[in-house]
Amino acid sequence: MKTSTPPAASGSPFSLRLVHGILFGGFTAICVVVGSPEFEQLLRAQRQVFHAGPPPRVEVMLAVLAALLGMGVILVQALRGRSARLPWSVLILGALGLVLWRDRAGPVPGRTADSANLKILQTARALHGLQIPELQNRGALEEDVEAWRVALQKVTHGEPTPVRTRSFEPLAYHIQKVDKPDTLPEGVPPGTLLLYVMEGGIAYELQAIGISPEGEPWRLQLLPAGEPVVFRGAFNPEIDTRPPQMP
C-alpha cells in the first residue's frame, strides 16, 4: 500500500507578511529607542572610572533584547515565505508594554556629570551654611576633621553622592583636610570636600570635588573663568549674633 506524503505548508501572502513585518518592526524600534539609554549607561559605567546616576534598568534591557529576538525570528520566517508563530509576536508586544510602562515617568534623571556636580555643590553649600552660624556664635570652629564629618552627616543624612563606580556602588561624601587652601591631593574621588582650617579655627575654606564629563575626579569650577568654587567662612567680631532684647 502506497503511503501519501502530507502536503507542504503553504506560505502566507506576501502582503500579509509585509504588513506584519512593518508593524512589529515599528514596535521593536520603539523598544530600542526607549531602552537605548540603559545600554548607554551600562557602556558608560564600564568605560569610565566613575559615572553619574543610577544603574541601568535590567528589566528594560531584557525587554529590548527580547523584542530584537522576536523581530529576528519574524524576519527569518518572512524570508522563508512564512509567517512567524504567534508567540513571537506576543513576545514583542509584551516587551513593548514593559518598556513603555517602565518609562512612563520619562528618562531616568541624574545621569549627567552636571546633575551630579550640582548635587555635590549643594551639599558643600549646605555644610557651609551650617558651619557659618557656629563660627559666629563660638568665635572658632573645631580643627579636628571628625567634627566636620559629624556636621557633614547632619547635612547628607547618610545619603551617598550621585556618583558611582564601575560596579555601580555609590560613593559616600567624604571630608579631607588639607594643609594649604590651594592643595589638590591626588586620587581623591568625586564627592570629597577639601577642608582647610586656619590655625585657631577662626576661618576656613571648603572646596568640592565633582566628576568630569569623562568620568574623572574634577574640582568644581566657575565657568567660563575656570576658577575653583570656594566656600569661605571667617569669624567677624563686629557681627552680633545674639537675639535682640525686648525693650
Question: What is the secondary structure topology, with strand pairs?
Answer:
Elements (H helix, E strand, L loop, with lengths): L13 H34 L3 E2 L5 H22 L6 H17 L10 H26 L6 H12 L6 E2 L9 E4 L14 E6 L5 E9 L5 E3 L1 E2 L4 E2 L1 E5 L13
Parallel strand pairs: 3-4
Antiparallel strand pairs: 1-2, 4-5, 5-6, 5-9, 7-8
Helix pairs in contact: 1-2, 1-3, 2-3, 4-5
Keywords: Membrane, Transmembrane, Transmembrane helix
Short description:
The protein is α+β, with helices and mostly antiparallel strands and 247 residues long. The chain contains 5 helices and 9 strands.
What report would you give on this structure?
The chain crosses the membrane at residues 20-39, 60-79, 85-101. Keywords: Membrane, Transmembrane, Transmembrane helix. Strands 3, 4, 5, 6 and 9 form a five-stranded mixed β-sheet that branches. The chain has five helices and nine strands. The protein is rod-shaped. It has two domains: 14-102, no CATH class; 113-234. The model is unreliable at 5-10 (pLDDT under 50). By secondary structure, it is α+β, with helices and mostly antiparallel strands.
